Amino acid sequence: MNAITKAIEKMVEHNLMAAEGVKTAEKFFIKSIKLTPEGRRTAKKLIGAQQRLPIVVKKSKKHA
């Protein structure tokens, strides 16, 4: 099981996402996912709380 599948399963357990697919004893085969209203509220809070990284991209000068 990869990290993305684990993260999606945790969000489904916490009612932040709704997933559609087939769950076997060992694995969850996801067909589609969508955010629940609670998940949308949480996402908006996180977007507002996250800090921007001070990354400076220097543009190179072309020599003529």
Q: What is the average per-residue confidence, as pLDDT, rounded to a whole number?
A: 85
Query: What global shape is seen?
Result: elongated
Radius of gyration: 19 Å
Number of domains: 1
Strands of the biggest beta sheet: in what spatial order? Answer: 1-2
Annotation, overall tally of beta strands: 2
The share of residues in extended strands comes to: 15-25%
Please characterize this protein's 3D structure.
The protein has 64 residues and is α+β, with helices and mostly antiparallel strands. It has one domain. It is built from two helices and two strands. The chain has helices spanning 3-13, 37-49; strands at residues 17-23, 28-35. A two-stranded antiparallel sheet has the order 1-2. The radius of gyration is 19 Å and the shape is elongated. The mean pLDDT is 85.
Give the topology:
Blueprint: H1 3-13, E1 17-23, E2 28-35, H2 37-49
Antiparallel strand pairs: 1-2
Keywords:
single chain; 64 residues; alpha+beta; two-stranded antiparallel ribbon; 2 strands; elongated
Give a brief description:
This protein has 64 residues and is α+β, with helices and mostly antiparallel strands. It has helices at residues 3-13, 37-49; strands at residues 17-23, 28-35. It has a two-stranded antiparallel ribbon with strand order 1-2.
